[in-house]
Each structure stands twice: as C-alpha cells, then as structure tokens.
Amino acid sequence: MPRTQQDRSKATQAALMKAARPMFAERGYANVAADEIVAAAGLTRGALHHHFKDKQGLFRAVFEQIETELSDEIDAAIATADDTATRMAISLRTFLDVCERPEVLRIALLDAPTVLGWDTWREIESEHGLKLINRLMTQAASEGVLAHEPSEVLTRFVFSVLVEAVMVIAHADDATAARAQVEQSLGIVLSGLFSAPG
C-alpha cells in the first residue's frame, strides 16, 4: 500500500531524530553539526529545514521526545502503587534513576535550558515534570497527606529541588555516595510538606 505524504513526513522526522539523539547525548548540542545529522540520517539539509526549520528545532523535538518517554516511564512505575504517598516515593526514586542516564542529563538538564532558553525549557517542563508533580501533590492533598494545598509556586519549588538534587549527583566524584546523601536530604526537605508521617 503506497505511503501517504503524512507517512513520509513522519518517517523523515523520525529518521532525523533517531540520528540526532545519540549525537546530542554523546557530544552535546554545540559539538554536533547539522550536516552530520542529515548525513547520518541519509537525508538532505533541505529535509532538516523543511521539518524542523533548523538544528535547534530538531533539538527541541528530541528533548520533547525524551520528556514524554520519561513521563510515561514514571507513570508506569507508579501505576500499581496503592496510595499517593507510595506513588510519590516511587516517582522520586524513578526520577533520580532516569536522570542519571547520560542521555537525559546532557540533553534535558544541561543543554536544553541553554539551547532553548530558560522560558521555553520551563514551558516544556510544565507539560511533563511539573504536571506530574502537581498531579501527585493534588492527589496527596485530597487524601489529607499534604499539610497544605499545592500551588504553582510550591510545585515549582519542589521541581527545582529535584533538579538541583540531580545536578549534585551528576557532578559528584562519587555518584553512589552522592545519591545516598541526596535521598537523605530530600527526605528532610520534602517531609515538611506532609501532614503526617509516611
């Protein structure tokens, strides 16, 4: 059956993203040339400009792809938890786990704020990480687990703490020891949100 133009467009976009993603992850955005990406994808520079406008547009698509995958992974991890407090604990561990992956650290946390600009990075994060945190905190508040109703500011504070926690682990000489310290410190900081132990 002949492919439609839409099918061909999706295939081209997928090929460019598949070629670019490992390059961005291994070497960083600044050290990857657009010509390298199109050559690896077996396409032309025109295809890149047609579907993503430029290398930055392609990077944004890769970043959004990663964010969607991470949100789906965390959702899957917490799906079988019996209560919101358990879901929050599982989501925290899963978030730290996935952010230790070199690909996620480089693309989503190190390069994205610089390449896309802080406002755009936060906007995309709002559709993924912040939305998940807000959902869990709203559920916890409805169950009487949180001491206060979650607000946008509080949700952003929690997200900022989690991002800083990931950075501490990423830049530590001993990542294992740093991870243990981070988890302990997060427990201290975040315990103030709860109205009861657990």
From TrEMBL:
<keyword id="KW-0805">Transcription regulation</keyword>
<feature type="domain" description="HTH tetR-type">
    <location>
        <begin position="10"/>
        <end position="70"/>
    </location>
</feature>
<dbReference type="InterPro" id="IPR050109">
    <property type="entry name" value="HTH-type_TetR-like_transc_reg"/>
</dbReference>
<dbReference type="GO" id="GO:0003700">
    <property type="term" value="F:DNA-binding transcription factor activity"/>
</dbReference>
<dbReference type="InterPro" id="IPR049484">
    <property type="entry name" value="Rv0078-like_C"/>
</dbReference>
<dbReference type="InterPro" id="IPR001647">
    <property type="entry name" value="HTH_TetR"/>
</dbReference>
<keyword id="KW-0238">DNA-binding</keyword>
<feature type="DNA-binding region" description="H-T-H motif">
    <location>
        <begin position="33"/>
        <end position="52"/>
    </location>
</feature>
<dbReference type="InterPro" id="IPR009057">
    <property type="entry name" value="Homeodomain-like_sf"/>
</dbReference>
<dbReference type="Pfam" id="PF00440">
    <property type="entry name" value="TetR_N"/>
</dbReference>
<keyword id="KW-0804">Transcription</keyword>
<dbReference type="Pfam" id="PF21351">
    <property type="entry name" value="TetR_C_41"/>
</dbReference>
<dbReference type="GO" id="GO:0000976">
    <property type="term" value="F:transcription cis-regulatory region binding"/>
</dbReference>
<protein>
    <submittedName>
        <fullName>TetR family transcriptional regulator</fullName>
    </submittedName>
</protein>
